[in-house]
Amino acid sequence: MPYQAKSYDHLLGTPGFSDTLLKNHFTLYQGYVNNTNKLIEETARLAKEGKGGAPEFAELKRRFGWEFNGLRLHEYYFGNMAKAGVELDGNSDLFKILRQEFGSYGAWEEDFKNTGAMRGIGWVILTFDPVGKRLFNTWVTEHDAGHLAGCAPLLIMDVFEHAFMIDYGLKRADYIKAFFKAIDWSVVSQRFQDAEKALKLEAAL
Q: Do 169 and 121 share a structural domain?
């Protein structure tokens, strides 16, 4: 079944994000969905025609991670935003492990923002290693380079230029500030709980 683009129109009107910026960003996301489906179709066609060893097959296979991760990372990104934002519960397990890992919530936030302010295009991801039970703020370059194997993405921030330049130009720090006000921490906390549950289920098998 082909992937279907999700609607994030409920984010229109989010303070700090113009509707023009968001609509352009939604259109870009839809392009990743379309291209992911095309690559699945094309590689299947080439394999059926006995061209699995052909250079074009190899190039499409290499491209798949870029398109698919572009699809999924945008869904995580839009999914962890809310028009009015939702604060992090100070009694939640996620808050406790953030404080344990970084010393304080403030220290974690500073580290995340500093990662987002790094030169270059990419994504900043708060990721959870369920094996080591550790949290990391990671930098992922161009969708498909920098992911930590086996880790669960919890909070995703897009720092490609298309995520902020229409509204902020080169003032990335102002975009990051606006993004933090729009974070839906209930979604991020649920992702953490889901990762913990998956680890417990795996241990029980």
A: yes
86-109, pLDDT tens digit by residue?
A: 999 999 999 999 999 999 999 999
CATH number of the domain to which 123 belongs: 3.55.40.20
Which residue do the tokens 């708060």 mark?
Answer: 126
Range of the domain at 42: 17-79
Alpha helices in 49-116 (DSSP H): 55-79, 93-102, 105-116
Asked if 97 and 196 sit in the same domain, the reply is yes
Q: pLDDT tens for residues 12-23?
A: 999 999 999 999
Q: Which two tokens stand for residue 8?
A: 């994030």
As for how many domains the chain has, the answer is 2
The pairing of beta strand 152-158 with beta strand 123-129: antiparallel
Q: How far is CA 162 from CA 20, 35, 50, 78, 167, in A?
A: 11, 18, 39, 14, 10
Q: What is the dihedral of CA 161, 179, 3, 152, to 10 degrees?
A: 110
Under DSSP, is residue 8 helix (H, G, I), strand (E, B) or coil? Answer: coil
